[in-house]
Amino acid sequence: MYRIVASDLDGTLLTPDHSIAPYTRDVLQRLHQKGEHFVFATGRHHIDVAHIRQSVGIPAFMITSNGARVHDADDNLVFSRNVEPEVITELVNMMKDDETVTIHIYRENDWLLNRVDEDLAKYHKDSGFSFTLFDPENPPLEDVAKIFFIRHDHDYLTAYEKKFIDTFGDKVSVAFSTPFCLEVMAAGVSKGEALKAVAEIKGFSLDECIAFGDGMNDVEMLSAAKKGLVMETAHPRVKATLPNNEVIGSHADEAVARYLETHLL
C-alpha cells in the first residue's frame, strides 16, 4: 500500500532527549528489510542527519533544511535550492540588532550563528555537529539553504513571521519548525515538494507515501502524502490546519514506530 515512509525527527521520530530509541531502530530496520523506503524529513542539517541515519543502520534518503536539500542513500546531493543573497542581506539587517534573537544560517557544509548559544548542544549530542560564528555585518550570501531565528517566545516570533511574509512575499517560504524557531527558505521550498521529488526519483507517486510530523514545517508534507499522521504533541496550529488528519501518540512513547509496526509490518 505504502512504499515510502517519511518522518520528521525532533518531536516525532526522536525521543524527548533527541535520540533514536532501540525499539524505533529495530522497527526501521525491519521496515527496510521488508522493502519499504524510509526518508528522514527534517529541518536539521544533512551532516547532522547523516549521523542519525548511520545510528539507525539503514540506507535512506534525507530531506533536510525543510526541503532545501535532498541527499540520496549514498549522500549524493539530488536536490538543492538556496535563499537569494539579497533576501539574506535584508533578513540579517532586520534582525542583527535584536539581541533577544539568535540568527542561524545553514550552508552546504556549515552551521553559522551570530552569537554563541550553548543550549543547542543537546540537539546534536550524538552527531557532534556544531556551529561557528559569523559576522552580522558581513554575512555569507552564497550556498545558503535556510536562515532561521530562535527565541523562546512564540508570540514574539509570530510578529516577525508576518513581517517576513509582508516584506518578501513569494520570494521566500516561511515556517515554524518549533514554536521557538522561525525559518526562512527559498520560494517553493517545503518538505512536501521535496517528498514529491524523492517519490519521482524512486519511481513512486505521492499516493504511495505515508508521513509523520508535528511542526508547521511538516504541514506541506503531511498534506502531500497519501496519509499524513500528526503527533499528539503537535503545535495547535498544525492540528488546526490539518483537522481531518489522524492524530497518533507522543514521541515519548515512540508512537511512529508503534504505528509502523502495527500497520506496515
From TrEMBL:
<dbReference type="InterPro" id="IPR023214">
    <property type="entry name" value="HAD_sf"/>
</dbReference>
<keyword id="KW-0378">Hydrolase</keyword>
<dbReference type="InterPro" id="IPR000150">
    <property type="entry name" value="Cof"/>
</dbReference>
<dbReference type="Pfam" id="PF08282">
    <property type="entry name" value="Hydrolase_3"/>
</dbReference>
<dbReference type="InterPro" id="IPR006379">
    <property type="entry name" value="HAD-SF_hydro_IIB"/>
</dbReference>
<dbReference type="InterPro" id="IPR036412">
    <property type="entry name" value="HAD-like_sf"/>
</dbReference>
<keyword id="KW-0460">Magnesium</keyword>
<protein>
    <submittedName>
        <fullName>Sugar/pyridoxal phosphate phosphatase YigL</fullName>
    </submittedName>
</protein>
<dbReference type="GO" id="GO:0016791">
    <property type="term" value="F:phosphatase activity"/>
</dbReference>
<comment type="similarity">
    <text>Belongs to the HAD-like hydrolase superfamily. Cof family.</text>
</comment>
<keyword id="KW-0479">Metal-binding</keyword>
<dbReference type="GO" id="GO:0000287">
    <property type="term" value="F:magnesium ion binding"/>
</dbReference>
